Amino acid sequence: MLDIKVFREDPDRVRELLPLRNGDALVVDAVLALDEKRRALVQKSDDFKARRNEISKLIPQRAKAKEPIDDLKEESKGIGEKITEVDAEKATVDEELSDLLARVPNLPHDSVPRGKDEDDNKVARTWGDVKTFDFEPKGHWDLGEALGILDLPRGAKISGSGYYTLKGAGCRLERALIQWMLDTHTGTNGYTEVSVPYVVNRQSMFGTSQLPKFEDDMYHIKEDDLFLIPTAEVPVTNLHAEETFAAEDLPISYCGHTPCFRREAGSAGRENRGIARIHQFHKVELVHIVKPEESYATLERLVGHATKLLEALGLHYRVLELCTGDMGFGAAKCYDLELWAPGMNTWLEVSSCSNFEDFQARRANIRYRPEAKAKPLFAHTLNGSGLALPRLMIAIIENFQRADGSIEIPEVLRDRMGADEIRA
User: Fold this and answer.
1) Nearest-angstrom CA–CA distance, 208 and 277
2) How many Å apart are CA 383 and CA 204, to the nearest integer?
3) Integer Cα distance of 296 and 293 in angstroms
4) Spatial CA neighbour of 206 closest among 369, 330, 54
5) C-beta of residue 168 within 8 angstroms of C-beta of residue 144
6) Alpha helices by DSSP H, 188-294
7) Which of 20, 51, 308, 318 satisfies CB 3.0 to 4.6 Å to 324 for a cystine?
8) Taking a C-beta distance cutoff of 8 angstroms, is the pair 286, 186 a contact?
9) What is the pTM of this model?
10) Are 316 and 405 in contact (CB under 8 A)?
11) Is 415 exposed, middle or buried (0-12, 13-18, 19+ CB in 10 A)?
């Protein structure tokens, strides 16, 4: 959530930047009008309360002087009723203002490329080369079915379109990847592993800015008003909601593995074939809570932690610097990491690394004190996938396929897999 001071102090800048985030510049005037109304009501309430305090002092003085006090009592009663009315009106305005601010996207960092959509994203760098084959590479759906490691029809039979089933070596490959990524992040990159609930309350979803804007994309348990998590970002970031840290307690770096659940599985097309876009998938997530002055250096380290995994696997990737119109709602700056899938003949996103600055921290009330007894400030939060499955599995299956339909296992996974290939 944006600080109301941003609207008060530089409304023209907000008007300029919001359309770049697919927001409406007219919201600035609506926010300022509600803010002005709120402040007027606060002043009105304060004036009434000041007069009531005066009366509370006058009554004993008059009584002592044996002067009439009925008029003061009547005035005090009337003021109390007016305060109740004004405070009720202020509460309504507060709710309207909070709801409006909750629907305004974060403003982009000055370094973010300006653009409308994914066509305007900037390729920051690439690593490796496109894999060449002396045969026509197959898609992972054909390879997986032939090897007996992927069963799409039975996944759909159980749960419907957008679900799948792994079998045998497919399960071992997924499990090996998750274990290897967690071990790397905790053992090499300095993260603390956490295990968190897979369902969260409404406030947690609000804290990381999934609500209210994206409620229709979430799986909602109506009876309990709980949500299946769309990403571990939600429960892991909210571990420290409503908390204030000492400066020496930051930075905090967490990693966690969870399933993720998303109702919206993408538009129709080639990318929907197989397991590139599904409703349930596994992901290892990385979350940072840091001091504001450290957040952009942390973002670059976060991207590095994810790309090093891709390099260890020997997978050709590119890093995209997302433009203003393609970033997520809460991000101030974002990089996407994409892998080339030769069977699908397309790039697949396996990580999105974002700096939210204080956008999430304001919603979740995550603060720190720069020094003892100092006024608390909002921390900055960041997160990124490190990495997301099953697209990572798609890239491995399609890039390491052989002419006979078998799959070579990347060397870093062989000990955990207990094999160097998958063969029918």
Assistant:
1) 23
2) 15
3) 8
4) 330
5) no
6) 202-207, 233-237
7) 20
8) no
9) 0.94
10) no
11) exposed
Strands in 279-410 per DSSP E: 280-290, 317-321, 333-341, 346-355, 366-369, 377-378, 380-388, 407-408
Q: How far apart are CA 351 and CA 89, in angstroms?
A: 45
Within 8 A by CB and 6+ apart from 411, the residues are 314
Cβ atoms of residues 148 and 424 within 8 Å: yes
One-letter amino acid at 293 equals E
**What is the Cα–Cα distance from 303 to 112, expressed in whole angstroms?**
16
Residue 384 makes CB contacts below 8 A (sequence gap 6+) with 285, 286, 302, 303, 305, 306, 335, 351, 352, 353, 354
- Give the single-character DSSP code of 124: E
User: Do residues 151 and 165 make contact, with C-beta atoms less than 8 angstroms apart?
Assistant: yes
Helix (H) / strand (E) containing 342? none
DSSP run (H or E) holding 271: none
- Strands (E) located in 243-355: 243-246, 252-261, 280-290, 317-321, 333-341, 346-355
- Residue that is written with structure tokens 């006058």 in the block: 58
**CB proximity list for 297: less than 8 A, separation 6 or greater:** none
Q: Can you give the pLDDT of all 424 residues of the chain as single tens digits?
A: 999 999 999 999 999 999 999 999 999 999 999 999 999 999 999 999 999 999 999 999 988 988 998 999 999 999 999 999 999 999 999 999 999 999 999 999 999 999 999 999 999 999 999 999 999 999 999 999 999 999 999 999 999 999 999 999 999 999 999 999 999 999 999 999 999 999 999 999 999 999 999 999 999 999 999 999 999 999 999 999 999 999 999 999 999 999 999 997 554 444 568 999 999 999 999 999 999 999 999 999 999 999 999 999 999 999 999 999 999 999 999 999 999 999 999 999 999 999 999 999 999 999 999 999 999 999 999 999 999 999 999 999 999 999 999 999 999 999 999 999 999 9
Longest dimension (CA), the chain: 109
